[in-house]
Amino acid sequence: MTETIKVLESSRTTALGGGRMTRTPDSNNKRLFVGSLPKDKNQADVLTAMTSLCKGVVDVIMYPSQQDRNKNRGYAFVEFASHEAAVAARDEMQAKPPKLWGAAEIKVDWAEPENEVDDETMSKVKVLFVRNLSMGTTEETLRLIFSSYGTVERVKKQTDYAFVHYCDRKDAEAAIKAKNNTTIEGCLIEVMWSKPVKNRELYRQRR
């Protein structure tokens, strides 16, 4: 699972009664992608700004830059209380893009929701997703750390995240409990179950 930005095509429209109606692919989607943000702003800054602009904002999700962890990546995901609130915010900000902190106009569109995986499938997963790693952390270091909880089949690291494959699910469960929200080489990491993917390219990256 990379942190690749997945923005839904905003031009999906259909003719309706002589006008045009924008269609959203998922009526349950409550998350917007917001781009062109100043990289020196933190989560609290963006949450305050978005709350002042839109109704129904409940959270802002941001990730640190891979090159400088004191900066953000120039984008955020904004979570709303309802799909309707997200629709209203998107329409308003696309009609009149705001300029935050005097910077360039921000870009707003739908964030693609994560693929849902059923509970039965997830109960068989033995692969962990570890993110917010230091760029310098190696696969060997991760293997050494996570082997403390059981036999690790392999580790695949990509920039600031990694996939840790265990031979036994119980060992993976122990690793999540022990390592989530802890630090590795000075970075506060998140450890969670990796969702199975059908996309061949993503599967190749995990291996």
Structure, explained:
GO terms for molecular function: RNA binding. This protein is α+β, with helices and mostly antiparallel strands and 207 residues long. The chain has six helices and twelve strands. Residues 1-25 and 199-204 have low confidence and may be disordered. A four-stranded antiparallel sheet has the order 4-5-3-6, with helices on one face. Strands 8-9-7-12 form a four-stranded antiparallel sheet, covered by helices on one side. Helix content is 26%, strand content 26%. The chain is globular and about 55 Å long. It has helices spanning 43-53, 83-95, 119-122, 139-146, 169-179, 200-206, and strands at residues 13-16, 19-22, 31-35, 57-61, 75-80, 107-110, 127-131, 152-158, 161-166, 183-184, 187-188, 190-193. 21% of the residues are buried.
Low-confidence stretches: 1-25, 199-204
The CATH class name of the largest domain reads Alpha Beta
Secondary structure: number of strands: 12
Globally, the shape reads: globular
List the helices and strands and how they pair.
Layout: E1 13-16, E2 19-22, E3 31-35, H1 43-53, E4 57-61, E5 75-80, H2 83-95, E6 107-110, H3 119-122, E7 127-131, H4 139-146, E8 152-158, E9 161-166, H5 169-179, E10 183-184, E11 187-188, E12 190-193, H6 200-206
Antiparallel strand pairs: 1-2, 3-5, 3-6, 4-5, 7-9, 7-12, 8-9, 10-11
